[in-house]
Structure formats: C-alpha cells, structure tokens
C-alpha cells in the first residue's frame, strides 16, 4: 500500500499545501484516499443522472462537476490549481486554454467536424493536457467527455475502464496513459482506438 503522494504512473503528485486540503485527517494511504474519492464519485454520478439537459461546455460546469466529484474529500475541489505540475499548462494559462477548448468542442459538435467518439477523445485529451485541477483530472475529463457525448451528440458514454480500475496500475491504465502521451505528440490514433472511434 502506497502512502499519500505516491501515485501510479501518469498520476499527478500533490504538493504538501494541497494535501492539507484533505478533509479526512485519518487517511494515510493512497488506497484509503481512493476509496473515499470513489464514494464521492459514485454519489456525483447519481447527481448527474438526475440532472436535466445542460450546457456542459462552460467553465462554470467544468468547475461544478469537479466540485461534485471531489468536494466531499478535498477543500479545493472545483478550484483551478495554482501550482506547476508534471503535466499541464502554466496555472496562469488555465482559464484561457480551457475557454479555447470549450469553444473548439462546441464548434466540433455544431459543425460535425469529427465523429462523436473522435470529438470526445480529442476533448478528453486536451482537458487532461490543460490539467485544470490539483488532482482528479483524469476521472473528471473522462466524465466530461461522456457528458459532452450525451449532451452534444446524444451518444452513449465511452467504456473507459472495460472492467478495470483506471485509478490502479494495470494493463488497461498503461494503455490509456500511453495513448494520452501519444496524443501529446499529435498522434491521436492510439487514443481513438482506445475509445473505439477507429478499429484497433
């Protein structure tokens, strides 16, 4: 069992100040933290199912979803990060980069630039690349992509995990992280295969 701050490959390490935002002082391992976060995520998914149609392509919604997903665990949930990470744009650029992405994603759906799954995969990748929050970006971006699919394309969600736990080290997670890294270099095919947009 790893301690807090010791994460699997591809995860964002937390700064000491960010760890101070943990609402549960008794948590000492990443396994305990994952259980708390998973419970919070499951309750937020019930909230999502009860919501009427909404504009998911807004900064307000991006923040609100993160707060819903992680706000029971972290005091800073829904707040853009203020520190540099091993991934992501300069914190000063988060707002601008996010607005550009949201505008692009709206254009993609309104003009049917990409197939629904390709649009969602590209949206997901750029949201992870921006890395708006101190932690939880992968999960948040996967759910954002699914909501984008549902609200803008009337398309079912992506089977991201395929029976695996993407928060733990396993072959599915390794394939997912490798696909995101390829997309960083403008090769989107592995990610498109991962989500089923093209044959693998």
UniProtKB/TrEMBL annotation:
Region (Disordered): 1-20
Record-linked Pfam families: Fic
Sequence ranges assigned to domain Fido in this UniProt record: 57-197
Annotated active site: 131
InterPro entries according to UniProt: Fido, Fido-like_dom_sf, Fido_containing, Mobile_mystery_prot_B
NCBIfam families, per database record: mob_myst_B
Name under which the protein is recorded: Mobile mystery protein B
Organism name: Altericroceibacterium spongiae
């Amino acid at each position: 069992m790893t301690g807090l701050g010791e994460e699997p490959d591809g995860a964002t390490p937390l700064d000491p100040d960010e760890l101070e935002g943990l609402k549960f002082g008794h948590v000492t391992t990443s396994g305990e933290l994952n259980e708390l976060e998973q419970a919070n995520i499951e309750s937020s998914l019930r909230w999502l199912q009860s919501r009427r149609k909404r504009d998911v392509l807004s900064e307000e919604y991006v923040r609100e979803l993160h707060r819903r997903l992680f706000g029971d665990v972290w005091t800073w949930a829904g707040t853009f990060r203020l520190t540099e990470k091993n991934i992501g744009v300069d914190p000063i650029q988060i707002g601008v980069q996010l607005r550009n992405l949201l505008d692009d994603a709206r254009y993609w759906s309104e003009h049917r630039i990409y197939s629904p799954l390709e649009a969602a995969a590209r949206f997901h990748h750029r949201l992870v690349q921006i890395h708006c929050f101190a932690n939880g970006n992968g999960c948040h971006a996967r759910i954002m992509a699914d909501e984008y699919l549902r609200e803008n394309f009337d398309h079912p969600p992506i089977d991201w995990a395929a029976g695996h736990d993407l928060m733990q080290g396993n072959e599915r997670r390794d394939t997912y992280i490798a696909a995101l890294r390829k997309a960083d270099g403008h090769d989107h095919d592995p990610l498109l295969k991962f989500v089923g947009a093209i044959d693998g």
